[in-house]
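[Primary structure, fold]
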Amino acid sequence: MRRQLVLGCAILLASLALGGCQQSSDPAVPERVAAASGAEPAAQVLVAGVTSEIFSSASKPTDPQVLFIHGGSYVHEASALHAPFFEKVLRNVNATITMPVYALAPEHGYRVAYKQMLDVYLELRASHPDSPVVLMGGSAGGGFALGFAQSLVEQGLPQPDRIVLISPWLDLTLTNPEIPAIDATDVLLDRKALLPNGLAWAHGDDPESYRLSPVNGSLGGLAPTTVLAGTNDILYPDALRLEARAKSAGLHFELVTFSGANHVFAMSPGESGDEARSIVEKLIGALG
């Protein structure tokens, strides 16, 4: 089984039965995302009007659909880690991964991106009514994914079948008292550097509101949720906080902790990354 980068609507309609898509008409978008994601050559399609990268190993229309929300502290495109991660996952799982190229700060705030994500999510569900849906996100995208799932509950819309969060940024304010100790040794993230990006994403709204800091939101009605987190990550203390709240709320929740692992280790080479990726594959495969 190999990962295929879907090149256009004809392939999508024939092999994946994904309706309502067009090739992206913005010539700047493919070049920008190609440089970021490592896809070669980059090919994007419009899903519900939102430019998206699609990776697939699906063999039938009912295989799982994965809506992946990339990280980048809400100001950067998808990193070069994504395409190789997807490729490895899709070697072992029959599924389609859709990664929207959503609006970023500082030009846009979260409200624009939430609307885009809702449009893509509803299109995936409508075009694949018999496919299970996995909502997945990494880093800032993990926080976005959880807040988005909470917004679905609030709107009375159906949940995905599974939520998977990789090293999620769960509290935009980064005020957890356990963070400073890790901040001193975290080799990838810096609290002071992240905060301005978070405020830009909030666009003047309360950064503690659940769409921005989902660890503060209601966990009632959410789909089964798995969080993969490393202990050498300033975002880890809020993953622990989410775990405690999930237990109190009775949410079907699992925090898988990797001792000594850094931020987004699950998408990086190494033993911990391989183990985390295996968990992701099992979670997706169990729905197929």
Observations:
- The chain has one domain: 4-285.
- Residues 1-42 have pLDDT under 50 and may be disordered.
